[in-house]
Amino acid sequence: MDIIKTENLTKYYKNIHAVDGISISINKGEIYGFLGLNGAGKTTTIRMLLGMIKPTSGSAYIKGKRVYADNIELWKNVGSLVEVPYSYPDLTVRENLELIRRLRFISDHKSVDRIIDKLKLSTYANRRAKNLSLGNAQRLGLAKALIHNPEILILDEPTNGLDPAGIREIREMFNDLAANQGITIFISSHILGEISRFATRIGIIHEGKLIQEVDAKELDKLCSKKLIINANNTQDASSILLQNGYTLSERKDGIIEVLDEKAINEPDVIATIMVNSDCPPTLLYVEEEDLESYFLRIIESNGGAK
Amino acid sequence: MKGLSATFITECMKLRKSKILWITFLFFIFIPMMMGLMFYIQMHPELIDKLGIIGTKANLLNLGKAEWTSFLSFLTQGMAGIGLIGFGFVTSWVFGREFSDRTMKDILALPVLRSSIVFSKFIVVAIWCVLLVIVYFIFSLVFGNVIGISGWSSKIISQYTYTYTMTSLLTILLCPPVAFFASYSRGYLLPMAFVILTMTLANFTGILGLGPYFPWAIPGLFGAPAGQGGMQLTLASYIILFSTSVLGLFGTLAWWRFADHK
C-alpha cells in the first residue's frame, strides 16, 4: 500500500498556480526527496499533505486515508517539520517537548528525555527556545517531529541551519529510521547533492509541476559527461578530431570539449590519434556533471528559474 | 474532552511562563491606584497646585464627592473602558502569539481538533480576564480604604459589586471578535486597531444616542448610573451583545478550521 499518495494535487492562489497536478506515490520505508528551487511549490505541497492548506483540486492520502483538517487520527503516526522550526520562545527545550508530549497523548513521561538524548539536546534542555542557535532550534524542531516514534515523517528542509557534522548525523538517523524501522520519509530540499545522499527516490518540482521522478541509484547515469582535451596547438587538435569524425566545441579558454559517447568511453583512442598526428594532448580527462548542474539543467529545460 | 483537557493544560503552560501575564496584572493594579490618587487629590484640594499636571487633571475630571458611591461608580465605568482595552489585548496576545511566534504550523498537524485549541484559548482568555476583574476590584477597595474615602457601607459595596461584575462580564463577552481579527490577520496589530476603533465608535454612538445598540457601548451603559445620558439598555441591547460574541466565537472557529494556513 502507498503510505503517502497524492492524486493530481493542485493549489491555485488567484492566477498563481502554486502546485499544479502533482501525483506521487511513496512506499513504506522509502525516503522520497522532493527537490525544487525556492518558490517551486514544495512547502505548499507539504502543507497540503499535512492538511494545513485545502487543495483547489485533487487529494492527498496518508496510509490510504484522505487528508483533511478534521481527520486528526492521521497525525498520530505522522511527524512533521515545516520550514524554519519555531518553538515557544519563553519555554525551555524540555517544556516545548513536554507540551508536544501532552498534545500527542504520550503517556510515557520519559519520552521527552529520550528524544532530548537522541537529538543531542541534553546540554540545552533547560535553555529557553529563544536563546537557541539556529542549528539547535532545528534539532528541537526535529525532536518535536520524532518524539512519538512516527511511522511517517514529512519534513521541509530539515537540515537548514545545521553544521556539516549535524547534517551527516541527521542523514544517518534518517537512513537508520528508513532502513531498520521501515519509516517512510518525505523530505524537501533545494540541494540535490545533499538529498541524493540519503533519498531512495527523487521528485523534481518546478513552477508547481512535478517535472521528473528518478530513482536515486539512476541519478549518476543521468548526469552528462564530456571529454576535456587540451594541446599545445588547439587549432590543430580540433582539426584532427573533426577529421576523425568527433563532434566538439571549444571553450573561451581554448579547451576542447567532446561530447561523443565513443570518445568519453575510450579516451585512450583519442590520445593515440593525437599522438600519431604529432599533436599529443597536454590534458585529457572525463568531466562528469555534478548533481547541482544536472538539477539546474533540468530546471532550465523546463522553463528555467524565474 | 481528552483533547480539550490536553490543549487547555498546554495553553496554561504557555501562559505561565509569559511576562505578559504579570504585566497585565500590574496594569490592572496601577489603574485603581491612579484612581485612588485622583480621589485623594479631590479630598485634599490644596494639593492641586502642588501636584502640577496630575492635580489639574484630577480637578478637571470632576469626580464628584469623594465618597464610596462615586468611587465605585467611577471604578465600574473605568472597567468598561479599561476592560475593552485590557481584555482586547489579552485576547490578541493569546490568539496572535501563535502567528508572531510562528508556532501555528506546529499545532495544526496534531491528533487534537483545532476547535479544542480554539476553545482552550477562549477558556484561558476568560479565566485571565476574570482574574484581572478580581484584582482590579480588590485593589480599588484597598486603595479606597487607604486614602480614607468616606461613606463605606456593606449595602453600597454589595450593590456596586453586582453592577461591576455584570459590567465586567459583558465586557469579557466582547473578546471573541478580537480573537477572530487576531486569527484572520495573523498577529496583534489588526485586533488592537479593532479594539481602539470600537472604543472610539462606542463614544461616538453614545453621543448620537445609539449606544444601546452598539455592542461595545453596552457594558459602559450598564455600568453607568441609572438614567445617565437618557440611554436605557433594552432586551435588544443584550441580544446584540450576545450575538456579537457568538459571531466572533464561530468566526474564529471557522477560520481555524477552514482557512488556508500558509
**Largest beta sheet of chain B, briefly?**
none
By oligomeric state, this entry counts as heterodimer
Strand content of chain B: under 5%
Low-confidence stretches of chain A: none
Greatest interface (CB-CB under 8 A), with counts per chain: A-B, 34 and 28 residues
3D shape of chain A: elongated
What is the H-and-E element order of chain A? EEEHEEEHHHEHEHEEHEHEEHHEH
Explain how this protein is built.
The complex is a heterodimer of chains A (306) and B (262). By secondary structure, chain A is of the alpha/beta class. In chain A, helix 2 packs across helix 3 (110-118). In chain A, a hairpin with a 5-residue loop joins strand 12 (248-250) and strand 13. Chain A starts with a strand and ends in a 5-residue tail after the last helix. Helices cover 34% and strands 27% of the residues of chain A. Chain B is mainly α and 262 residues long. Chain B has helices at 2-16, 19-43, 47-50, 53-61, 68-100, 114-146, 154-172, 175-185, 189-208, 218-223, 235-258. In chain B, helix 2 (19-43) packs antiparallel against helix 5, helix 2 packs parallel to helix 6 and helix 8 runs parallel beside helix 11. The longest helix of chain B is centred in the N-terminal third of the chain and has 33 residues, at 68-100. The mean pLDDT of chain B is 89. The chains are: A alpha/beta (306), B mainly alpha (262). Chains A and B meet through helix 2 of A and helix 1 of B.
Distinctive features:
A: 306 residues, alpha/beta, B: 262 residues, mainly alpha, 11 helices, globular
Provide a short characterization of the protein structure.
The complex is a heterodimer of chains A (306) and B (262). Chain A has 306 residues and is α/β, with parallel strands linked by helices. Chain A has eleven helices and 14 strands.
